[in-house]
Write a structure and sequence with these properties.
Layout lengths: L1 E7 L2 E8 L8 E5 L10 H4 L7 E5 L18 H15 L5 E6 L1 H12 L4 E7 L6 H7 L7 H7 L4 E2 L2 H8 L10 H11 E4 L2 E4 L3 H9 L5 H7 L4 E6 L7 H9 L3 E7 L6 H4 L1 H12 L1
Parallel strand pairs: 3-4, 3-5, 5-6, 6-10, 10-11
Antiparallel strand pairs: 1-2, 2-4, 7-9, 8-9
């Protein structure tokens, strides 16, 4: 595994790459959750490196990828276009298997619906979206998002990594995380400053990204003509039961599972199931 810096049509992007697979192996892109980064999923992806050429990129304003000025919201359609720009910069002629967690799953679906000629299949891990009926009623209006409000209030600066670690361990979204996963998050989720460390994904960026959650997932799913698998958490999932059933009934759905004992952070808790789904969709 090594990190590369890419010049893409959407601007500079940073990515982790696993390139030990043999020539002719399929290409896999993995997209991360809001507020997270590619390094968090290295433990998940490393066992797949013999089977795929793997790229896991940092979305704009996350991890090692620059964000620039941030407005009120970051459109997930734009993040999906960024994803396609990354794959174009790496292997423009290859069909890609797109997998992603949370926002990463949702933007992978948006990318696949818009660029089906570039996509071989999808694995969606607890993708978040505005429930379909609410999205239809809202149109283009931004729906109130408590996650965005919470993210905007996050503490950004710490005197050192140890203090940040103590603030997160066993609390909030980190409650179910292993020590190894928390350390992986901190490694690329913090940047050094003159006074200590600061969040790589600034609270304003995280909040704006949450506010940009797509209203177009229902339409993208209807347009999807590639095989896919859906994995959802049991507790705190972002896939409501009604929408889960719609995904599961799709003619191109290979499998839809809600895994017992998991939360929204399924890739950290059941990496084996996520890897199995990726291998199954790849065929």
């Amino acid at each position: 595994m090594h990190r590369i810096e890419l010049a893409t049509a959407a601007g500079p992007r940073s990515a982790l790459v696993w390139d030990i697979a043999p020539a002719g192996a399929p290409w896999l892109h993995f997209a991360h959750a809001t507020g997270m980064h590619s390094g968090l999923y290295a433990r998940l992806l490393a066992p797949l490196a013999d089977h795929f050429h793997i790229v896991a990129s940092d979305s704009r304003g996350h991890g090692h990828s620059p964000g620039g000025p941030v407005g009120d919201h970051v459109r997930w359609d734009d993040v999906a276009a960024d994803l396609v720009a990354v794959t174009d910069a790496v292997a423009p002629a290859a069909p890609w298997l797109l997998a992603g967690h949370s926002m990463g799953g949702a933007v992978s679906l948006l990318a696949a619906a818009a660029h089906s000629d570039r996509v071989a299949g999808l694995v969606l891990v607890d993708p978040p979206f505005v429930p379909f009926a609410i999205a239809r009623a809202a149109g283009d209006a931004i729906v109130a998002n408590p996650m965005a409000d919470q993210a905007a209030k996050r503490r950004a600066d710490f005197p050192d990594v140890a203090t940040a670690r103590a603030a997160y361990a066993g609390r909030g979204v980190f409650r179910s995380w292993s020590d190894a996963d928390l350390d992986a998050y901190l490694a690329d989720g913090l940047r050094p400053t003159a006074d200590g460390v600061t969040l790589a994904c600034a609270p304003a960026w995280e909040a704006a990204t949450f506010r940009g959650v797509s209203h177009g997932i229902e339409a993208a799913l209807a347009a999807l003509d590639r095989p896919f698998a859906l994995i959802a958490g049991e507790t705190g999932s972002t896939v409501p039961p009604a929408e889960f059933a719609i995904f599961a009934a799709h003619p191109r759905c290979r499998s839809a599972e809600r895994l017992a004992g998991t939360t929204h952070f399924v890739p950290l808790e059941r990496g084996d199931a996520v890897r199995a789904a990726i291998l199954a969709v790849a065929g």
